[in-house]
DNA sequence: GAAAAACATTGACCTATATCAACGTTTTCA
DNA sequence: TGAAAACGTTGATATAGGTCAATGTTTTTC
């Protein structure tokens, strides 16, 4: 039970940097804990996203709506990952996506202003943020490639090999909307695996 | 002809930062100029991408190949933009995409090691890199949303409104492969605009 | 813990987009 | 500059995946 004795975000940061950085308490002080229930909407589309969240426990998704009101899952976020509507958070513009909890979740939240301040004044924080942006960008480009070049079955296999966790934890409907498929199609493809 | 008197990369960096940063000459010294012809392949898939390029003049694309050898354009890069195979460059792993010139181009290249060194030792360089990652990540997420939630005609209109330059400069075939469409479909859709 | 709602699956059918083929036009390059 | 190759467009046809509907199952809620 040692894990429960330390601050989850402290663990994360120390692990990422490989040491306990100077000024860490100052960083941690900028975050507030937050617990939300399944289906809770953290951000509605059209609103500006003023916060960035670290996921301690649980799972969330970014949801976009097309002209006909049909939803797509533009991203899935699990433990030890961060979530925000990046375009809205960075550019201070209305979000074109919603942030919704898929499971009851425990989060740490930081405001845009505090985030910017840390990025500017705490070098290790900027480094973590940069590394996170690299990871996220790489992931997003891989996703674009899969959507451009693979058919439905290939995408299912690709997701199964790189993020098998998703299949054991999320509903058929959510997985389908993340893959750009109808639930019926995903249901049928699962039999062909 | 004033523009020709200064270093294009110097211009870019000063414009991004809003002033001439200390140590800029040190940064510029790490880059080497490079001129390539249309269709030249800067990086082949399967090789590790050891360099990052700033585009002074011209246009390039990132190309991925699926199981059947059909190509998709995973990104398009114009003047004043950067190109590398990000996953390969950052993680030192074989690239799953090719970098190819669509026009004869003038570039400035920097090696991975020099790039890392600048990121670590020249704070304004890290800041520019971070801002670039933010922009690129935002762009990539928008692309995912368009591929998940829009039909072919909507994607064409979307591209036309956000990057009209592309239509005046690139071939029907390349635009189609960037939109995830066959050339025939794009050809037909253009009449419906 | 029972009723209601949401979900997963399967079948029948439909449609957006791909594929294949033909042909004229543009580009490339010897 | 002229032959060959690549490209763009259009028509005919094929198909992957979507939509609609029915049914049984799981989850939510009061």
β-strand number of chain A = 8
Approximate strand percentage of chain A: 15-25%
Mean pLDDT of chain A: 94
Q: How would you describe the oligomerization state of the chains in this entry? A: homodimer
**What is the ordering of alpha helices and beta strands of chain A?**
HHEEEEEEHEEHHHHHH
Tell me what you see in this structure.
The structure is a homodimer of 193-residue chains. In chain A, 48% of the residues lie in helices and 21% in strands. The first copy, chain A, has 193 residues and is α+β, with helices and mostly antiparallel strands. Chain A has a domain at 3-124: Jelly Rolls. The first copy, chain A, is globular and about 55 Å long. The model of chain A has no long low-confidence stretch (mean pLDDT 94). The A-B interface holds A 64-67, 70, 72-75, 86-87, 90-91, 96-97, 119, 126, 129-130, 133-134, 136-138, 140-145, 147-150, 154, 177, 180 and B 64-67, 70, 72-75, 86-87, 90-91, 96-97, 119, 126, 129-130, 133-134, 136-138, 140-145, 147-150, 154, 177, 180.
